[in-house]
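Weekly modeling sync, notes
Attendees: S.R. (lead), two postdocs, one rotation student

Agenda item 3: backlog of single-chain predictions. S.R. asked that every request posted to the team notebook include the full sequence so nobody has to chase files. The rotation student volunteered to paste the first one in as an example of the format we agreed on. Action items at the bottom.

Example entry:
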Amino acid sequence: MVRVELKSLFKLIKAIASFEGLKGFWKGNFVNILRTAPFKALNLCAYLPFLQKVFSLGVLESMKVEDTVFRVKGSMSSKLNSSGS
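Predicted structure, as returned to the notebook:
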């Protein structure tokens, strides 16, 4: 593990490559995937039914489709993030 205070990004990249090789750049990635995969899977599975339900309510006809999609995404992400904490 590199424990040197380097001020330059390029120096840090070079130090990691020389001390640990290419594996050094992927350390912790598997744990990160295990942490984020369930949330992303839930988000993917819930997005389309949620969007269909919002459009079926009929309250969004006056809005542009792009605006609606952005608002629905924001609403979903805030709900999923608050329930996951």
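Discussion: group reviewed the output briefly. Residues 9-84 form one domain.
Action items: rotation student to repeat for the remaining queue; S.R. to check formatting next week.
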